[in-house]
Every structure is written in C-alpha cells, then in structure tokens.
Amino acid sequence: MKNRLKVLRAERNWTQAQLAEALDVSRQTINAIETGKFDPSLPLAFRAARLFGLHIEELFHDEDRSNLETEIKKDTYV
Amino acid sequence: MNQPKPPEKGYQARVRTNTIQLAQWSGAWVASCALMAFGPKFLWNKALAFTLLAIGSNVAAGVGVILANKNYLAELDELQRKVQLNAMAVTLGVGLIASVPLSVMNSYHLIPFKVDISHLVMLMSLTFVVSVVYGSRRYR
What we know:
The complex is a heterodimer. By secondary structure, chain A is mostly helical.
C-alpha cells in the first residue's frame, strides 16, 4: 500500500515526532509507514486521514490496484 | 507553523510509565525467586512456614509480572505490538522445540553438564531479546 504521509507532513512542516504524537503512536511507526515497510490498521489510517482533513483514499491507495489501472489504461490506448 | 494537537497524555509518557511498572514487577519477581531459592538454606533454616511464604510471594510477583506485561502490550502502538508478539511467538517456539531434545540429551548424558530449567529460561530470554532487536531494526 502506498501513501502520501511524508508529502503531506512536509507540506505542513511537521516532524515525524510531531505527527507521531498527534496520532498517538511511536515515531518509528510513522517512519515505517512513510517508507512503506508497515501498513497501518484501518483505525490508524482513518485517524491520519482525519488529521490531514482528507478522505482515506486520498492518503492511502492500493499499489496493486494502481498497477492494474495503469495496465488497463495502456490496453485501452493500444 | 500550524502544529498538530497531541492527545492528553502522550504515547511516549504512557509507554514509559508501563515500562517502569513492568521493570519493577520483574525486579520483584527476580528478588522473590532468589529469596525462594536461597532463603530456606541461608535465612530461615528450612522453616516450612517461611518457605511457603516465599513461594507464595514468588507466585504473587509472577502474577504481577503477567498483568504488567499485559498492560504494557495493550498500550503499545500497533507496530511495536507486532514486534513484541512476533518475538513472543519465536520465543515460545524455540522454548518448546528446544526443551524436548534437551531433555532427551540430558537423559542419555549427551551433554557434558546437567540441564536445568534455568538453562531453558536463559535460552528463551536470549531468544526474546534477539527477536525484539531484530524486529525493531527491520522496521527502522
């Protein structure tokens, strides 16, 4: 699963520690999510989306589905 | 700069409190183990009442460790809990798998020293520490 957590955090000039505090998790967890090493649970993903004032699908998206959509678009144009 | 609003008592503070409580209960348990093991011989000359009291205090401290560990796990965030639970699973597996061959090897005198339950405890402790360190580094 891919996410825009790092970009959105950088736009607001928040550190990983500040975001971790706001989401009530450890800084290591934020880092693991940002680097794609760990996928958050649904409640944590919703908390993050709420914090940034976005819908959950604007923050997280399925990598496999993105690849599939790209392939479908390619097939359509061919 | 627009700062995100943190919750009432922060994650780090809660984890710190629970870690201290877990360490205190673990310390009490280790002390009660020592009292139970050496007390009858060195402190009260094998008096039954004191020995039973020492065993009771050891069991009570053990229950305290279990509850403190449960609280500690409950307050961890999902990634830290995953690391801890993975480490516990590996430790349980190693303990179970190692205990049977060790017992057999001990019965047939294939090990140059007498295997004791403390060896298994040491093996499991070491396995847990290594697993936690490995898990933490994996998600760094």
